[in-house]
Write a structure and sequence with these properties.
The complex is a heterotrimer of chains A (551), B (105) and C (171). Chain A is an alpha+beta fold and 551 residues long. Chain A folds into 4 domains: 6-109, Sulfite Reductase Hemoprotein, domain 2 (Alpha-Beta Complex); 143-290, Sulfite Reductase Hemoprotein, domain 1 (2-Layer Sandwich), CATH 3.30.413.10; 306-397, Sulfite Reductase Hemoprotein, domain 2 (Alpha-Beta Complex), CATH 3.90.480.20; 412-548, Sulfite Reductase Hemoprotein, domain 1 (2-Layer Sandwich). In chain A, 36% of the residues lie in helices and 17% in strands. In chain A, a hairpin with a 5-residue loop joins strand 7 and strand 8. Chain C is of the alpha/beta class. The chains are: A alpha+beta (551), B alpha+beta (105), C alpha/beta (171).
Chain lengths: 551, 105, 171
């Protein structure tokens, strides 16, 4: 956990006061909506279908129990008692009143939470993977670098009015859980042959109307040059990114139009002119940030504690353990994923009561720390294995122990037309129906890892392009229709899904997904051949045939 | 961003002007009496492009009270009851179409 | 449109001369980049200070040969959301060492004053009277800055390092 000091807190408070003044001037009419809109977006405030939506930052997906309790408080006091965890490790509240926002922000600021740059044409939350710092095989904790980037990009005077939004992601594992290949800048932390720590820098990834997989602009940037190199990229983008058409304004378009070699050359020219500047990170500065991250005082615990041996007799506990518990880098500990995808529930939502319960459980079992994943689940990153049976019972009581992590009913969905003014179609009821169709856990286990992603419009907040099964809502003659793609993936082998055929109406989507799954079960080479690998092996055709044979 | 007044206005049937209230984001409908109501039956109905443009213009002028006014279709049932004219407006009036947490037992 | 300099409203000593209009014999003038580049030497030979309004979609590199002889460079924000002039400002100040007046023009509003100051602007053609009057207070909104620019403000990272050193020195 990163500990905010007085300087960090002062900045957050100054931002809250500034926003309070901006809201006051909007409500008095001193600021028009045209002048105010970008200001409110810069503090995470959208106008949605029936209310304002407030997006709060959870930097690199890490929360303390105190912070989670405060989010529960905001849900209760200023909203309708729940929040939604997003595909960028943030949280959204859907019913916020503008006039009350400054107070909500002040309440959050007390525990070091803010909403800076969670929207607008600026640099957004620097996401990482939710197992950062505890996953086996990590080079080092990527969150140290995420925090350096967070500070560097916050209220940056040169880059607060970019052509369009700008998203960073960083991974320090061979298996990329942060989807760096579909970000504007993706960073892969690794060591070069000389043992120096640095980054492979990818640029121009992104989803939305024109999805692209990111391209490597430089295979190795040493840690000390990270900020100056990022500044060079941002400066080239700020000056040359298109501003005439919002659908062509992301850096991915600039990279595509110039070509990666030319783009890399522009960045290199800019970087050579500024490389040995105040942005160079000397070791002392990196250590300063590193020293503010605290890690648990892990005990020396056995690999197989008695409590676990006993609980193994309980088939329900075992089912949950095999599904939701993951290997920790420290012996005797585990990483526990809390599914926010109950059968029939809206994916990624949690009530204030659930948030409070998780905060208590984090205090008891996870050194007070919680993680938020981009797949819209939570995690407790430091659980002693001997505590797993007790934890499971407690989670089950509050509906957070559905054993469907990474399975077909662990669906990632945007809010869709139920909430969002950009949407063409609903996504949540599609997800809810799918969880009902696949509610049987044995069936879901049989199917294996299968990521379904649902977006209610082309903006792709549900990341449907990189879903194993991707579902995109469109509008046809006033009716909701859905395009289905298969074979996408978001990891180090990132690929965009392929359309299987014409869009299908709302009422048929769940049937189509069942048909696709049936086809997979019939066609897979072995029980452990994943859906996405079967698609890779056989292509889209056999699935297309099965789905459209009777449609 | 083009102002709603500069965008081409199309009327396919009876329509209204709707927006969100600035202070709290609540859905509002433009009335014939130069004001706003949270109740759809109070909304002024327009049937031509000229009428729509005029209603929209006065709505846009109330920048302090309302955010993002636009023209939306309505359905008029037998007996004159006014209903939302598409799914989006139905959701804005009635709220989300889904089960929220905590789930019904 | 009030001009703000040194944190308060000031008279603008420079006359904007539109393209095609005759230049006054002497006196400080502001001309467009197009006019300037037609015959920079002639304009610089004039008695009276010279300023250039540089568009935000053109590299400032093209202006660099004359920077030392210009009194004002005005950069443009066609809307406040178009942030290209921030990069231009930093390049002029930090890379090319321009130390004349750097003026923000266009849709210049209160809530961007701090960003503009940090990017190196020191004069502002402010849209609204009320914003101009609030300039001094607005400039004090922030006391903590995360990233270095050419404005000389110490970043949070380095303030922490300084604190650390003085703590350990005190032992």
């Amino acid at each position: 956990m990163y500990a905010y000091d007085e300087l960090d807190r002062t900045l957050i408070n100054e931002r809250v006061e500034e926003f309070r003044d901006q809201v006051k001037r909007r409500l008095s009419g001193e600021l028009t909506e045209d002048e105010f809109k970008m200001l409110r977006l810069q503090n995470g405030v959208y106008l949605q279908l029936h209310a304002y939506m407030f997006r709060v930052a959870i930097p690199y997906g890490t929360l303390s129990s105190k912070q989670l309790r405060r989010l529960a408080h905001v849900a209760r006091r200023y909203d309708r008692g729940y929040g939604h965890f997003t595909t960028r490790q943030n949280i959204q509240f859907n019913w916020i009143k503008l006039a009350e926002l400054p107070d909500a922000l002040a309440d959050l600021a007390e525990v070091g939470i803010h909403a800076m740059q969670t929207s607008g044409n600026n640099t957004r939350n620097v996401t990482s993977d939710q197992w950062a710092g505890v996953a086996p095989g990590e080079i080092e904790d990527p969150r140290i670098w995420s925090e350096l980037l967070r500070q560097y990009t916050t209220l940056h005077p040169e880059f607060s009015f970019l052509p369009r939004k700008f998203k960073f992601a960083i991974t320090a594992s061979a298996h990329d859980r942060a989807a760096i290949k579909v970000h504007d800048i993706g960073l892969r932390l690794h060591k070069n042959a000389q043992g120096e720590t640095g980054f492979e820098v990818l640029v121009g990834g992104g989803l939305g109307r024109t999805p692209f997989i990111g391209k490597t602009i430089k295979p190795f940037v040493p840690g000390r040059d990270l900020l100056s190199y990022v500044e060079a990229i941002l400066r080239v983008y700020n000056q040359y990114g298109r501003r005439d058409n919002i659908y062509k304004a992301r850096i991915k378009i600039l990279v595509h139009e110039l070509g990666i070699e030319k783009f890399a050359a522009e960045v290199e020219d800019e970087w050579l002119a500024m490389r040995d500047s105040a942005l160079t990170l000397d070791d002392a500065v990196v250590e300063e940030i590193r020293s503010r991250f605290s890690y648990p005082a892990y005990q020396k615990l056995p690999h197989m504690p008695e409590e676990l041996k006993q609980a193994a007799h309980d088939p329900l506990f075992e089912r949950w353990r095999k599904n939701s518990v993951f290997t920790h880098k420290v012996q005797g500990y585990a990483i526990v994923t809390l599914s926010l995808k109950p059968v029939g529930g809206p994916p990624g939502d949690a009530t204030a009561e659930q948030m409070d319960a998780v905060a208590d459980l984090a205090d008891k079992y996870s050194f007070g720390e919680i993680r938020v994943g981009h797949e819209q689940n939570l995690a407790l990153p430091h659980v002693a294995k001997r505590d797993l049976p007790a934890l499971w019972k407690a989670l089950d009581k509050v509906g957070l122990a559905t054993p469907n992590v990474n399975l077909v009913s662990d669906i990632i969905a945007c809010p869709g037309l139920d909430y969002c003014s950009l949407a063409n179609a609903r996504s949540i009821p599609i997800a809810q129906e799918l969880t009902r169709r696949f509610a049987n856990h044995d069936t879901a286990d049989l199917i294996g890892r299968l990521h379904i992603n649902i977006s209610g419009c082309i903006n792709a907040c549900g990341h449907h392009h990189v879903g194993h099964i991707g579902i995109l809502g469109v509008e046809k003659n006033g009716e909701e229709f859905y395009q289905i793609t298969i074979g996408g993936r978001a990891d180090e082998n990132a690929e965009l899904g392929v359309l299987i055929g014409p869009a299908v109406p709302y009422g048929e989507v769940a049937d189509v997904v069942e048909d696709i799954v049936e086809a997979y079960l019939a066609l897979r080479a072995r029980p452990d051949e994943l859906f996405v690998d079967t698609v890779k092996r056989l292509g889209v055709e056999p699935f297309r045939e099965r789905v459209y044979a009777t449609r | 961003m083009t102002s709603p007044l500069e965008q081409k206005i199309r009327i396919a049937g009876p329509s209204i002007v709707t927006a969100n209230r600035t202070s709290d984001g609540v859905v509002i409908y433009r009335t014939a009496a130069n004001g706003w109501s949270t109740s759809l039956p109070d909304a002024a109905i327009v049937r031509t492009v000229e009428e729509a443009r005029a209603l929209l213009a006065e709505s846009v002028a109330d920048d302090v009270g309302a955010v993002g006014p636009y023209i939306a279709p309505v359905e008029i049932k037998d007996g004159g009851k006014v209903k939302p004219g598409n799914l989006r407006e139905h959701i804005r009036l009635k709220g989300v179409t889904i089960d929220l947490l905590p789930l019904p037992a | 449109m009030p001009l703000v300099k040194n944190g308060k409203i000031a008279t603008d000593g420079f006359a904007h001369v539109p393209d095609g209009a005759e230049l006054p014999g002497d006196g400080a003038i502001l001309v467009t980049a197009a006019r300037f580049l037609e015959d920079p030497e002639a304009l610089l030979r004039r008695a009276g200070k010279l300023g250039v309004i540089w568009p935000n979609n053109r590299d400032v590199d093209d202006l660099v040969p004359w920077l030392g002889r210009l009194s004002v460079v005005a950069l443009v924000f066609p809307t406040f959301r178009d942030g290209r002039a921030y990069s231009q400002a930093r390049l002029l100040r930090e890379r090319y060492g321009y130390d004349g007046e750097l003026r923000a023009a266009g849709q210049v509003l209160r809530d961007q004053f701090v960003f503009m100051l940090r990017a190196g602007f020191d004069a502002f053609e402010v849209r609204k009277e009320s914003d101009a009057e609030a300039f001094a207070d607005t400039a004090k909104r922030y006391s903590v800055f995360y990233q270095p620019t050419g404005d000389g403000r110490v970043t949070a990272l380095h303030r922490r390092m300084q604190q650390r050193h003085s703590e350990s020195a005190g032992q």
